[in-house]
Amino acid sequence: MRVWRKMIVGAALAAALPGLAGAQATAPRADQLAFRAIYKELVEINTTLSVGSCTTAAEAMAARLKAAGYPDSDLHIIVDPAHPREGNLVAILPGSDPKAKAVLLLAHIDVVEANRADWTRDPFTLIEEDGWFYARGASDDKAQASIWVDTMIRLKAEKTRPRRTVRMALTCGEESDGALNGAELLVTKYRDLIDAGFALNEGAGGLLGDDGKPVSLSIQSGEKVYQDFTLGSTNPGGHSSRPIHDNAITHLAGALVRIGAYDFPVQLNETTRAYFTAMAPLVDAETGAAMRALVANPADAAAAAIISRNPTWNSMLRTTCVATMASAGHAPNALPQRAEANVNCRIFPGVPVEDVQAQLVALAADPKVTVTADATTRLTPPPPPLSDAIMKPLRVQADKLWPGVPIVPFQSTGATDGKYLNSYGIPTYGLTGIFADNGNSGVHGLNEKIRVKSLYDARDFLYALVKTYASAK
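Predicted structure:
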């Protein structure tokens, strides 16, 4: 998940619930060691865009599935000829009921760049140390990708067909704008291979308290949409010794100030209502009361103001737009002929890009300033429903491992590959079951790590949950 997209529920509670590292309490079981071998192989294949190969990783995982009994007809390596190192893998375990909609397991296998000279450990060697796994991709997203491969192998080993077909898609291109996005490729050109009633993806995990015990488990249902806009102003320019008020930089600066001072209206949907309802008893009294008041009345400005003190919660409540880059002028002794700025918006699910663009034009309030939507995604799907078919099995399986831990629906303020599937009619939920504290996980940064126990627990949880979903009527 891209670093500017990465978001977990725990971040909102960092001050109140500091994390605690913990180790795997007992020696790993034989089946956990078998999973660890899959995880190690996948992590140690460099899948960066610059020099790595998702195709190599996809082929390695396909070889493991073939060794587990999957025929070639159920294994599909999808590679665009123009992007030979950006391959994807689709694996299929046919169900017993061809009329039942499939379950799709989605994860990306590309990773962010990692410079060995900057790391304490080799980023492409899996290191287990003091209860943690270290490596680039140890968390994002090769943890879940490895769990899905392991789950497919375990399901095959049972020699019983689930009622629903289980499909797995390991994709490339999530981490880099310059890459071919595998999830988009599959859903638009290979829909028959991945078609499903719903999909499970990255996007949400669990929060550990200061005692190392689980506080909450989140499920992502919906995400804000990334969209860049370019604001520009041009002018014939001239000599700086003869200034005029019609100045490109001045026009642009005024527009940016007005945009920066504006708060988009508060919006709530099924996911955010459930989120704030679940979070209310977990925070301080004033904030909890504000959360309950806002759920009851989204027009309660006083409650919104209290919640908006937290940048995460503020972003969950509304569309947000912020200036992130600017450039202007061509010489220190000349009037500027051009001034440009990038305004990055995270759009509330279901709000059209055109509506946000129109609001930015109104805020700029200057005919000398243009507002252009960049060629980023224009997909703004509404969040998938938190139906009983999704939530009841989740509660049952979660209670087996983490009794009494509340399940918190969560709307990401960033975006994942789920936006592609949601936009094309495959409801996609972020659900990893990986619990983390509020310490630095190093995701997208140096010395990326994940708790060993959290990974092994998530493996057991997701396997049981996928079985439950796949057998449901």
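Summary: Residues 128 and 134 are 6 Å apart (CA to CA).
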